[in-house]
Each structure stands twice: as structure tokens, then as C-alpha cells.
Amino acid sequence: MKLRSKITSKYQITIPKEIRDSLKLSMEDVIEWSIDEQGIHIESANKPFLKYKGFLNKGSSDTKSDIKKAWEERAKRYSK
């Protein structure tokens, strides 16, 4: 899928809705740009908690229990 943005006279662009939705961006969010051999990449810069998405999902719907299990697993990793 190719998406387009137009550069304004002030070098501003509008981020296409599909990208905003994918990155869960909203007003005042910050994005990071990077360039490498594969091309130009953007990602959300101020939502680091998204990298933990699904980490606490252990099958139960009890958040306190899920947090306790996650802490126990983490403690096992660092107690060696």
C-alpha cells in the first residue's frame, strides 16, 4: 500500500490516517525518523510502553494476578 503526503511551504506534512492508526498517534505525539539502506522509517517516539503490549496477558482477566505473575517471571530471570 502506498500512501502520500504533500509538503507545505513550511515543510510540514499530514500523516495519513492509516499510519496514525497503526502507530496509535494523536495530537502532541512525537515521531522519530530514521534512514538506513532499506529506506526511511518512522515510529512513535513518546509511547515506549507500546513495546510491552501483550506482556501481561497471561490468559486470566485478573490484572493484579497478571502483574504478580509477570513480576515473578522477571524475578526468576534476574535471580540467577
UniProtKB/TrEMBL annotation:
InterPro entries given in the database record: Repressor-like_regulatory (IPR052975), SpoVT-AbrB_dom (IPR007159), SpoVT-AbrB_sf (IPR037914)
SMART domains referenced in this protein's UniProt entry, alphabetically: SpoVT_AbrB
SUPFAM superfamilies: AbrB/MazE/MraZ-like
Domain of life according to the entry: Bacteria
Pfam families per the UniProt record, alphabetical: MazE_antitoxin
Limits of the SpoVT-AbrB domain: 5-50
GO molecular function terms noted in the UniProt entry: DNA binding
PANTHER family according to UniProt: REPRESSOR-LIKE PROTEIN SSO7C3
Protein name, entry field: AbrB family transcriptional regulator
Species of provenance: Leptospira neocaledonica
Taxonomic path: Bacteria, Pseudomonadati, Spirochaetota, Spirochaetia, Leptospirales
